[in-house]
Structure formats: structure tokens, C-alpha cells
Amino acid sequence: FRTFLKNKYGSIVAGWRALDLDGNGRLSFQEFCIACRKMGYHGNLKLLWNELDANNNGFVSVGEIDPKVAKTVGTFKLELMYHYGDMLSAWQKGLDVNGTGRIEEREVKECCDRLGLSLNSKELFDMLRGSPCGLGLTLAEFDPDAHRRFMTSDFTGILSKANTDFIDQVEGIGEAIPWPADVLAHRSKVEGSQMVSKKALWRQEVMRRELSEIEADRDEITKFRQGLDSVDGFKKALVKRFGSIFGAWRNALDVHDTGRISFHEFCQVMTRLSLGGDVQGLWHQLDVQDNGFIELVDLDPETDLLLSEFREKCNEHYGNMLLAWVKGMDRNGNGSVDEKQFVRVCKDVGFVGLDVTDGGRPADGSAGGDEAGTASERPTPAQRLFRLLKPEAGRTWMTLKDFDVAANNALCRGDFRMLTEADVSYRKNEEKSGPSKLEMSFHERMEASYFYQMVRSVRESQKEEFNKSTRSALPPELGDGPKEEFTD
User: Fold this and answer.
1) From the CB of residue 254, how many other CB atoms can be counted at a distance below 10 Å?
2) Which of 73, 48, 76, 49 is nearest to 63 (CA)?
3) Of 2, 180, 187, 208, which has the highest C-beta tally within 10 A?
4) Dist. CA 172–CA 41, nearest whole Å
5) What's the confidence (pLDDT) of residue 419?
6) DSSP symbol at 319
7) Rounded to an integer, what distance in angstroms lies between the CA atom of residue 342 and that of residue 350?
């Protein structure tokens, strides 16, 4: 019979789980017959029962089926209960310490060493697991009661019986060997309770957890609001909400992409984000120059320096940010750029990443080194900038809108020279080449007007290289497509 259980279920413990369906730790003759027929055992059940029930008490336990398995597993579980309090805590803190949901023989051996048990870890693991070719031992296989507590969040076992799985098979338990504290406390609180039902105890436990969670949330909100009176607390709030200060600047603060926000806009943002505190005092701490506006440099000087240098290099190399995207970044015209392409363009334009903490000197690990595909402990400035520009941390690519909002707006208008985005804040400080309007003649001023510049921009957009980059024209071999012919 033991051989049948091992061949069918992989171990005596797994076979006993299939026999003891109600989990009370013992089988009556009727339960034994039903379980054996259900699992496909067709031997002489009455003769087998007489051999197993040696003490003639009318019940069969796992210790009567295989005394060695019952003693080994029971001793191991008893020490776990002594050391960790209950079986669920023992699983989480003693066995599955890495949180994978499964344990292997190595983890069982490490647990035995910590407990000081001189058990054969390989033999113990083979007794516990259900199949020799499995991926490890799960909590449901190790202890069904602990698994039930975990799945129902009944961590103290109020709605369950005292967990004595295999522990009651240890010789001398309850006499020379004391019961674990969790079993005694469980019996006195739950099973010995006459006035209060289990459901009432469970409701009390749920209410206690909810009150503790509410109190913890209230304390966290209080600490959070207290920290908003300082610049550091405000920055931590933005990072917690948006992942980075630049993400908060683009998605919540500077939503119109003007490069700066006024005090009125700042108050609206604080209200929209439900951030309290001394708003006016925080504004005065941010607006150091007292010019009525705050910019990205006031919140994150390092990111602002990276963006300023990157935009300057792109403008020098390509003329503007839209041309940098069309000619440099998105050469194949698919509308997106990954990290490898972005780092390559940074290398082409000469972007090195200045360090604001080192007086504007190049930071360590510039973009001129390895590309994005090479793993390194510290990302290069180009890689950091790419991860700042993409809106979601899980995405591996970014679009033109992520790259530069003004360039995306100009592309929608067909303005490849970005004439309509000349009022963007970071373009205002660019040095303008050529003579001033006072030095121009009438015809020169007319040619420099917005209308003539737009005409030239449209002509530039109709050139072959732009048609190829933006996929606005069909290949020559396709022509105008098939023509429909009509017959009289």
C-alpha cells in the first residue's frame, strides 16, 4: 500500500493528503474505503485496515501508515512552530525567504541548519514533495492549513482549527513535549470561546486591521503634508507621484510647454494635485531670483543642464529639434526611437552630459563610449536623458512628442523650420544670426517675414529627403497605384 501511494502521488505525505480529505489527521474505516476506491486501489481493504489499525481504536493516522515519515516530518514542523510561532510565518521567514512561492532541497537544508536539526535534508525533502520531477515544493503541498490562512488573509487562523498537521504524530506531544504556543493560544481563544463566535472574532480581527491601516495612512499623509513646506519635501512628493521631477514638470507643472510657470499656475497645480502646506512660502523658496516665475532649473538643475546641452548640440548640428528628429533620430520614419538610436545620435552631435555639481564639466561615462545595449552599473548621461524623456518607465521607445513637444506641434503644422514655435522659452535665448531689421532694406525685411519663411519651409518639406523620412510619398515603382478601367 505504501508503494502504491509513492508510485501514484510521489510520496507518503502527498498520498496521505489524498486520503485525509477533511484534514482532521485521522481516517475512519468508511473514509478509508471511500478514499482508496476513489484513488484506484483495489486490494483487500478489510485486511489492509486490520493491519494498519494495530491499536484497534477505529481510526488510522499517517503514523500507522509510515511511522518514519510521520516522525521525521512531525519533528521538523514542531521545531518550525517553536522557532517561528506558526506554520505560515515559518514558511515566509524560514523556508521561502526569497519569496518565490516554492522551496527546494537547498532551502530545506539551510532551514534545518538554522534550527539545529540533524535531519537528512534530502530524505526530508523527498518525503514532502509530491513529484520527483517537479519545480519544487509549494505552500499548499507543505501545509494546507497555512496555505488556507494565506489565501483567506486569516493569518491568525481564527476561522481554522489549531494547526497540528503531523505534529500530533510526535511521540510524547502534550505530555513530555509541550504543544507550541500557537496551538495552545488558538485552542483557548477560538475553540474554547463560548460567548464569542468565530465569525465575531474574525470581524474583530478585520476591524483591527482596517483601523491600523487607516492610522498608518493618516500618519503617512501627515508626514507627507509636513514635508511640503520645504523644497526637499516638495521634490519628494513630485518624485513619489510622477517618478521623477522632470516627469512632474512636463505632465503637471509646465503642461503648456512654456518653460516656466507663474505663481497663479503653481497654486492651481498644488490644488489639482491635492498638495497642501505653506504654498506661498514654498514659492518664495523656489523663486530665488524673485522674477515671478520658476523654471525647471529651480527644481532640477542637473536635468535642466542635460536638456540645455542636448538641445544646443542638436540645434548646432541640425538647425532645430524637428530636423534633429527627422534627419538624426527617426531615419527610418517609423515614428519612434529606442535607446540605442538615441545614444547614437547623442554621440554624433557631441553630447557628453555636463555635470552641474562639477562646474559644468563633462560627467563620467559620456555618450561617446559604449552604446545603450552594453550593460553597466551606472548609465551614461545619454541613457539617463533617454529614460527621463520617455513618459513611462516600462516603455523601451519614445515618440516625437516625448522628444520635444514644440517640434511635435511644428510637425503637425508642416513647419519643418519651427517658425511657429519661435516663442518657446528655450528658443528665446538663442543667438540670432544676420543683421537687424533696422539694417535691412525693404525687400530684405519682406523676405525675412513670417510668410516668406513659411513658403521656404513648405518647399523644404517637399524635398525628396523629407518625403522619404516622413513616408509622405510612395516609392517610384508603385506609381499612383492601379487604375480602374471602364468599358463601354
Assistant:
1) 20
2) 73
3) 180
4) 33
5) 67
6) S
7) 12
What ranges make up the beta strands (E) of 12-108? 102-103
Length of the chain: 488
Residue 472: which pLDDT band, with cuts at 50, 70 and 90? very low
- The grid coordinates of residue 293 equal 516665475
420 pLDDT band, cuts 50/70/90, is low
Cell 523644404 belongs to 460
**Inter-residue contact 3 to 12 (CB < 8 Å):** no
pLDDT tens by residue, 122-144: 888 888 877 666 678 888 888 88
Whole-number CA gyration radius for the chain = 36
CA–CA dist 433, 275 (Å, integer)? 45
> What pTM was estimated for this model as a whole?
0.46
Distance CA(277)–CA(130), nearest Å, equals 59
Q: How far is residue 48's CA from residue 33's CA, in Å, rounded to a whole number?
A: 10
- State residue 479's pLDDT score: 45
